[in-house]
Every structure is written in structure tokens, then in C-alpha cells.
Amino acid sequence: MQIKDAYILNIFENNSSRLPKWCNDGDAVKLPYCQIKGKYRMELPGYNTMQPYPHMNERCPSLPPNYQRTQNC
Fold first, then answer.
1. Domain containing 5: what range?
2. CA–CA distance, 47 with 58 (Å, rounded to integer)
């Protein structure tokens, strides 16, 4: 699994009101996750959208630099 595979898994909190109050304080853009530190905002396309399943991504091809996968993989 790649880094993207980890953050797209639907295993994170869905209700942004349950995030800590300091999470999005002072930021004009409200993210569905907490970015704890950093000067730049992280963009995580597809964050928390894929339901995990057995043997997930075991045979999915991907090549750098974009790590594009085939459809339904």
C-alpha cells in the first residue's frame, strides 16, 4: 500500500464537529481532518472515501511519479 492508500481508507472520523476545537481555528478553509503542524495546507484527494476490503490493493499496478492505478483497483 502507498501513502494515498492509507489516507483514502474510510477509517477516520466522518463528523468534523467531533474534531478538537483548535483543529480549524483561524483557518478560512475548514478541512475534514486536523493538520497539526506546517506552513502549507495538505491536500488529500479522496480522503476517507474507500471502504476497506480483504486483500486490498495486493495486485494493483502503479508507477511513479503519479502512481496511477487501473480502474477498480
1. 1-39
2. 20
At 9 the pLDDT is 92
For the residues 51-70, what does the mean pLDDT come to?
A: 79
* Cβ atoms of residues 39 and 27 within 8 Å: no
* Cα–Cα nearest to 20, from 35, 40, 42, 38: 35
Q: 24 burial class (0-12, 13-18, 19+ CB within 10 angstroms)?
A: middle
Q: Tell me, yes or no, whether 17 lies in a domain.
A: yes
| Domain count across the chain | 1
Give a yes or no: residue 68 inside a domain. no
- Per DSSP, 50 falls in state B
Q: Note the pTM of the prediction, 2 decimals.
A: 0.69
